[in-house]
Each structure stands twice: as structure tokens, then as C-alpha cells.
């Protein structure tokens, strides 16, 4: 026999908020979100009228960081739906995950993913999709100005991800300072490793 035990600081996921918004349970959504912020986001003041916006900004930023870290070590999450994306930007449900032996942007660790939706080369895009679902869940709690700002935060996800991804790869390669050819070198080395 065997026992599998999964531990995490929290099991609250994007889907935890998404289901409440979808069913119109806005009071419960607000109470749950306040609880999550109070318990796990101490830098956000509970009396701040922009707390949901600050929460969203933190989740967007940390999700970009998490997926950049995944990519930097060749890790692919096998089931990246909103029920498996933590609001704390931690990996809580490994499911059929895997590490690449050699670089392959089409690597899929989940044998049931016939459409290759969660291939490693698509993980950052799936992160963006899930964050857009989080924004959709938060919108009933935001005023028009906050909705506009939240959309701008979401638009910055790609740049944040790419910046962190580049920083991690530059560190791996020992590239110091800023050089306009660094991104070309990283892309070239990944392409070369694909041919090997």
C-alpha cells in the first residue's frame, strides 16, 4: 500500500473564484476573496478600496514569475486549467507533469493531451488565458476605472514573463549586463538544442 499526501500553503485556485462569479454568488465571492487576501497577501491593506486590483496585480506578476521558472528548468505542467492554477502562484497539482530531457517546445507530459494544449511551448499562453479568467471573475467586484487598470495589468503579463524568462536564461549562460544580442543568443541556443 501507499499513501500520497500533497501539502500546500493554500488550495485556493483561480477556479475557486471563477465558479462563484459564474453562479452569481457575489457576496460569497467578496468574502472568500477578502479571506484569501487577509490570509495570504499581508502587504495588501484590507481597508484599501483597490485591494482586489492589487491582488490581481500580484497574482499576474507572480504567475509570470512561476511559469518563467518552469520554463527555465524544462518543467511542463500537464493540466494547466483554472482549477490547477493557484492564486498564490505555486504549483499545487502536478498531475501528469514532466521535465524535458532536451529542449522541445512541443513536449507534452500528459499522454491524454491529444491536442497538445499544454505543451511546454504553450504554458505561458495558458497562464495568460487563466489570468484572463481570473479577471473575468473579479470584474463584478471592480468599478469601471479598476476594470480598465486591471486590463492594463493583464496586458503587461507577456512583457513581465518575457523579461523574467530572459533574466533566468541570461543567468544560466553567465551573461552579464545588457547586450542587444542577448535575446538573439538565447533564441539561437534553444534552436540549436532543438536540432541536437
Automatic annotation (TrEMBL):
Tree of life domain: Eukaryota
InterPro entries tied to this protein: SelO
Record GO terms (molecular function): ATP binding; metal ion binding; nucleotidyltransferase activity
Pfam families the UniProt entry points to: SelO (PF02696)
Keyword Transmembrane: no
Record's keyword terms, sorted: ATP-binding, Magnesium, Metal-binding, Nucleotide-binding, Nucleotidyltransferase, Transferase
Cofactor annotation: Mg(2+)
Family annotation (PANTHER family): SELENOPROTEIN O
Sequence similarity: Belongs to the SELO family.
Descriptive protein name: Selenoprotein O
Amino acid at each position: 500500500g501507499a499513501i500520497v499526501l500533497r501539502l500546500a500553503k493554500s488550495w485556493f485556485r483561480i477556479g475557486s473564484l471563477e465558479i462563484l462569479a459564474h453562479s452569481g454568488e457575489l457576496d460569497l465571492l467578496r468574502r472568500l476573496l477578502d479571506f484569501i487576501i487577509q490570509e495570504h497577501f499581508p502587504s495588501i491593506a484590507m481597508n484599501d478600496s483597490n485591494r482586489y486590483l492589487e491582488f490581481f496585480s500580484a497574482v499576474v506578476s507572480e504567475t509570470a514569475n512561476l511559469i518563467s521558472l518552469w520554463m527555465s528548468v524544462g518543467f511542463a505542467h500537464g493540466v494547466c486549467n483554472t482549477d490547477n492554477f493557484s492564486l498564490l502562484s505555486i504549483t499545487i497539482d502536478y498531475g501528469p507533469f514532466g521535465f524535458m530531457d532536451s529542449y522541445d517546445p512541443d513536449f507534452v507530459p500528459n499522454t491524454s493531451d491529444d491536442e497538445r494544449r499544454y505543451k511546454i511551448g504553450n504554458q505561458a499562453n495558458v497562464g495568460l488565458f487563466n489570468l484572463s479568467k481570473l479577471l473575468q471573475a473579479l470584474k463584478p467586484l471592480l468599478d469601471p476605472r479598476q476594470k480598465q487598470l486591471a486590463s492594463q495589468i493583464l496586458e503587461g503579463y507577456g512583457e513581465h514573463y518575457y523579461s523574467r524568462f530572459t533574466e533566468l536564461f541570461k543567468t544560466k549562460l553567465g551573461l552579464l549586463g545588457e547586450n542587444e544580442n542577448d535575446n538573439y543568443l538565447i533564441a539561437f541556443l534553444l534552436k540549436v538544442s532543438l536540432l541536437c
